[in-house]
Write a sequence for this structure.
């Protein structure tokens, strides 16, 4: 398990190539990128709770390892000031079974969305806006 | 007890964290105490359903006990990923 | 849409970095690797039906684009002689919605498994063995 | 008509493809014709349920018509991915 909370940009391709499947045949990745928004995004600022963030991510990844047969798990999540098209975060899962790799990655994303202590603020020409959580994201947790 | 605020809760209260001495037995009692203090707390805690709380860095509930607790954090629903 | 049927090895990380999400925020990849097998795998030989393969992959990818809002789709599948740990194939999907990206990638994999004209033969010290399709893989198609 | 074989079907029949002139109206009739030819065809087509067929490079059924068809391919269930 490799969990990283960092300000620096990361290279998703290099992370995929460096991710050791430990002999498994199925590797799934999810990469989240800063999307532009109506009005033009000047900055996405990601705030987090340093004393809690890594622990929360480790607990979520450990839960994925308990539910699926995974041979490796990677979670990277950035904080700080980001620009459009930059990578925000990435998860990778490896398993002997493709369904396990897909489901575990989907699970990790659902929990990162609503249970990891990050908050996003978008700045456009018209002002600042805290991104709001959605009912859909909260509902997504119920499938697990 | 260290009380920590994030995102628009932090912005409304105007500081990221503060040391608070309280006799509140639960998170909800602490919230009531803070709301009674000043308008900026009232603004931050007006709608409890829009808030989440972590007690000693674990997601928790507003009826959680504060016994032996060292840090309480208030924030809006998380938007990671 | 980018569909490639090739003998040459590919670089999964470089493919992820070169995959254009066209403004979307969610990118999912699946990479399939040659697994070692009991007895020690000397070679995995992948046979295919050249006149049909690319057309079949394009039809599967087009079906994914019809079912989900995707801003890009990549499918790479190799044929020929492969060694353990080499990448066999890769799919990538990009969407505004993470569920669409995950589901489309899962769909692509289910169809590639059972509807794309590839056949795998494993050679170990004890002999050659054509990999058999599984009931589970055929059943997986029914979820779509 | 070009008839193409893959994987263990190709190995059992001993060649990757051949030109066949036939009056068979359907894939199933072509299979019967081939099985009657030689033991190696009988070995390849013994269990039709273990085989798949493509007609002019489209997955098809054994009752498909061969009218105007230029290529028929026989192979075991695919194992891509």
């Amino acid at each position: 398990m490799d969990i990283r909370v960092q300000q620096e940009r990361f290279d998703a391709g290099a992370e995929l190539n460096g991710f050791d499947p430990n002999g498994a045949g199925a590797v799934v990745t999810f990469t989240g990128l800063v999307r532009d928004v109506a009005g033009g995004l000047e900055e996405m600022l990601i705030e987090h709770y340093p004393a809690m963030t890594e622990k929360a991510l480790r607990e979520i990844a450990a839960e994925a390892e308990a539910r699926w047969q995974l041979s490796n798990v990677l979670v990277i999540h950035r904080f700080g000031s980001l620009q459009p098209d930059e990578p925000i975060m990435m998860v990778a899962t490896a398993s002997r079974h493709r369904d396990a790799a897909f489901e575990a990655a989907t699970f990790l994303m659902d929990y990162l969305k609503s249970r990891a202590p990050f908050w996003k603020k978008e700045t456009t020409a018209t002002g600042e806006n805290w991104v709001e959580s959605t009912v859909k994201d909260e509902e997504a947790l119920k499938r697990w | 007890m260290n009380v920590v605020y994030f995102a628009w809760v932090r912005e409304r209260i105007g500081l990221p964290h503060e040391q608070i001495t309280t006799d509140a037995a639960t998170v909800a009692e602490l919230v009531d105490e803070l709301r009674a203090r000043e308008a900026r707390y009232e603004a931050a805690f007006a709608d409890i359903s829009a808030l989440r709380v972590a007690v000693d860095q674990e997601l928790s509930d507003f009826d959680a006990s504060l016994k032996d607790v060292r840090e309480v954090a208030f924030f809006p629903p998380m938007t990671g990923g």
User: Anything to note?
Assistant: Chain C has a mean pLDDT of 96.
